[in-house]
Amino acid sequence: MTQDxxxxxxxxxxxxxxLGTAAAAISVGLAGCGSALEAGAGxxxxxxxxxxxxxxxxxxxxxxxxxxxxxxxxxxxxxxxDGDEFQVINGGVDSPSVVVRAADISESVxxxxxxxxxxxxxxxxxxxxxxxxxxxxxxxxxxxxxxxxDRLSLSVE
Length: 157
What we know:
By secondary structure, the chain is mostly beta strands. The protein has one helix and eight strands; from the N terminus they run H-E-E-E-E-E-E-E-E.
């Protein structure tokens, strides 16, 4: 049985639910709102960019995750918008920062009230939460209006 690129596998779906739940449990914005980093020395760190509800759905977003250090990124994974609708447009794997964009062209993301993970960035070793930042260039809902920037946050596991 072959899988369509837009059809998540059972493990991908399970991972999304786990990351979404974990991100919701520890979602603390780093852009002036504090931090949540409990990674041990030498371990990986996962930064999750979350959206605290989208009562009017999600149309598109463009976000940048940067750090003051130079720990390389080992993975960038979309969580809410899949396939060709999610792109790394600068940096990413083997780089210390990443710029991503997504557009829900298929209109698969409907309105939701809970906190959900947009994407996750894995760093090859522990990073200090204070050294990470999230910049939201664009975030719009299905009606084309801006989503308030304070609804998007960055948390670190």
